[in-house]
Write the structure tokens for this entry.
Amino acid sequence: MINLILFGPPGSGKGTQAAKLVEKYSLLHISTGDLFRYEMGNDTPLGLEAKSYIEKGELVPDSVTVGMLRNKVESNMEVKGYIFDGFPRTIPQAEALGKLLAEKGTAVSKLIMLDVEDNELVKRLLERGKTSGRKDDADESIIRNRIEVYKDETSPVYDFYAAKDKAVKVNGIGSIDEIFARLCAEIDAL
Ligand code: C5P
Ligand code: MG
């Protein structure tokens, strides 16, 4: 199996690139943010719990996120591999993912980080907010909080995989196709 983590701050292009990568490599795209938004749209108990965090740009507690991710993986076992988008966002989530994949006899192949500077992220997210319908994209102070949460809680996840020689950064500035080619070069090197 090929199990990729598409990593990077909010607005770095993870979802856009994941959609292209799943086509080329026949992997299953798992976006925990999309799963939360689906639950929120259906007003499920999980969605209602997640909403109180997401609308402030905070992280949903690890136990909730990990449980949801586990369900998604366990109901999709017959795949060639996974692209995790927006997960793991904390060290405990990274540890839980390692454990889950080990139970299935597999492991994370590589974490690829899309590197984009803060002002560009804010610009992209405000632009996306005009059409995404996402409250967390519509307000600059919530966007800046998401970027702070990324720096404080999520960026250590990069070092966690770097210590295992499994993390790489690619330049996340350029056209969608240019960035896609950079990602493919990293995957083809596996
Ligand atoms: O990944 P995405 O940016 O779509 O996630 C949207 C929001 O969902 C995050 O800002 C956060 O509030 C929540 N989330 C989370 N933990 C994750 C993924 C998403 O708390 N692992
Ligand atoms: Mg996304």
Q: What stands out?
A: The CA atoms of residues 131 and 138 lie 9 Å apart.
